[in-house]
């Protein structure tokens, strides 16, 4: 009988490399956020379904992808599909109206799984509330740039667009409806569905080749922006250019969620193909849903599994971050040298975290050496009564198969110069 349990579709067990990269990303993200004086939040993962409805009844996230169910007390709840909405609930709950906040945690979307797209995935993100200023928008890009540099992600593309005010967007959506309606018969089923759901903006997102020909000739939002939105967008582009932050203006860029206005953006990477590495923008109207107050906001979310896919294929990252560790096994010959083993272990631990040190216990020394060899250990340190009496140990370089005796007091220097 085989009782092995396979994870659910779209869920996965991470291997040890993925987990190590995950922790690296998390450490770097929160380290940088702390330097920028951003506060960490970790909202609950289960929430009332109704709060996510405002992400757009017509959007896939709300329409088809929510992991929603009725809990025992009859309340409709769902696993969170993203953090922005629940973040605002938390801010409203604590009556906070400004500041910058970061998070990293799981999200759930009942999507069709494929490479880089999972039903359970992790997002890291930043949300800034209380400031409606193009300089804040630029700072978001600067933060992402520094973060991606720190985690060895390069060759990404930043695409930006402005979708104007809510009124600009309404007007544009009507124009799109008029434009697409007579051509619907030539469009994919997916696009037709979006049309009938009223998701006209999202029709611009289609990956279908025939759709793309029609979409390319569609009216562009940039021609219908009000003066204020146009000026803000121009200012952002000007500063990004001055700061040497490369971007591509994409007038067809729309986001999958309904709450955005003015600036929207996505980061893409060739390893991810059609899937975005990150997406975000301004959502100045969302807070009003909760407290009736106008509190401007901007933010981005980034898929952690997608970053991991990129880093797994980056030899510089693998060499400098993953494979830069030195594995050491301590092999006391007899149980009586156990305390000495702990003493030596502490000497090595105190040096630097790149040394991974483990004491192997077993009666048989040659078995332990075989085990160390099998585990690709770099150095073994062997010592029995004889060595300890002389205040020394035997160090064996397993890769070169060379052994040397060395005084315990010189161990520190031996490893420091490695
Ligand atoms: P989003 O574009 O829906 O935006 O998701 C942000 C990122 O999460 C995507 O760019 C992608 O990397 C990752 N992601 C989304 N779905 C999946 C999936 N099924 N599997 C793996 N990764 C995925 C938001 O969620 C907004 N809350 C972002 C935001 C924050 N806007 C303003 N503030």
Q: What does this 3D model show about the protein?
A:
- This protein has 418 residues and is α+β, with helices and mostly antiparallel strands.
- Helix content is 38%, strand content 22%.
- The strands form three sheets. The protein has an eight-stranded mixed β-sheet. Strands 13-12-14-15-16 form a five-stranded mixed β-sheet, with helices on both faces. A three-stranded antiparallel β-sheet has the order 2-4-3.
- Helix 5 runs parallel beside helix 9.
- The longest helix is centred in the N-terminal third of the chain and has 20 residues, at 16-35.
- The chain starts with 15 loop residues before the first helix and ends with a helix.
- The mean pLDDT is 93.
- Histidyl-adenosine monophosphate binds next to strand 6, strand 10, strand 11 and helix 11.
Mean pLDDT: 93
Q: Which class best fits the helix and strand makeup? A: alpha+beta
Question: How much strand content do the residues show?
Answer: 15-25%
Strand order of the largest sheet: 1-5-6-11-10-9-7-8
* Strand runs, count: 16
Shape: elongated
Helix count, per DSSP? 16
């Amino acid at each position: 009988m085989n009782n092995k349990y396979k994870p659910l579709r779209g869920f996965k067990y991470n291997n040890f490399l993925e987990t190590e990269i995950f922790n690296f990303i998390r450490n770097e993200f929160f380290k940088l956020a702390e330097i920028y004086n951003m506060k960490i939040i970790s909202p609950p993962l289960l929430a009332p379904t109704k709060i996510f409805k405002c992400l757009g009844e017509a959007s896939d996230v709300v329409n088809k992808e929510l992991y929603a169910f009725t809990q025992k007390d009859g309340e409709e709840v769902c696993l969170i599909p993203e953090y922005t909405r629940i973040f605002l609930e938390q801010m409203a709950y604590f009556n906070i109206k400004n500041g910058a906040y970061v998070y990293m945690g799981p999200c759930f979307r009942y999507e069709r799984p494929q490479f880089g797209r999972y039903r359970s995935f992790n997002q890291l993100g930043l949300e800034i509330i209380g400031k409606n200023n193009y300089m804040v928008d630029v700072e978001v890009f600067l933060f992402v740039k520094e973060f991606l540099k720190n985690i060895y992600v390069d060759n990404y593309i930043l695409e930006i667009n402005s979708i104007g005010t809510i009124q600009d967007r309404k007007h544009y959506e009507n124009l799109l409806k008029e434009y697409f309606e007579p051509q619907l018969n030539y469009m994919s089923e997916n696009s037709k569905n979006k049309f009938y759901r009223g998701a006209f903006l999202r029709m611009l997102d289609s990956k279908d080749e025939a759709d793309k020909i029609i979409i390319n000739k569609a009216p562009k939002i940039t021609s219908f922006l009000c003066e204020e939105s146009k000026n803000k967008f121009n200012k952002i582009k000007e500063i990004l250019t001055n700061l040497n932050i490369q971007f591509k203006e994409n007038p067809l860029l729309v986001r999958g969620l309904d709450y955005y206005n003015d600036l929207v953006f996505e980061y893409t990477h060739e390893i991810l193909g059609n899937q975005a590495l990150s997406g975000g923008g301004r959502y100045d109207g969302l807070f009003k849903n909760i407290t009736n107050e106008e509190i401007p906001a901007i933010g981005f979310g980034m898929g952690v599994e997608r970053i991991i896919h990129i880093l797994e294929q980056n030899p510089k990252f693998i060499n400098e971050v993953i494979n830069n560790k030195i594995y050491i096994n301590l092999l006391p010959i007899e149980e009586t040298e156990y305390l000495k083993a702990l003493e030596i272990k502490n000497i090595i631990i105190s040096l630097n975290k790149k040394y991974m040190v483990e004491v192997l216990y077993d009666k048989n020394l040659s078995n332990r050496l075989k085990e160390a060899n099998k585990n690709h250990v770099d150095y073994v340190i062997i010592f029995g009564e004889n060595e300890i009496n002389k205040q020394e140990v035997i160090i064996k370089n397993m890769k070169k198969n060379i052994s040397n005796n060395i005084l315990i007091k010189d161990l520190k220097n031996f490893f420091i110069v490695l």
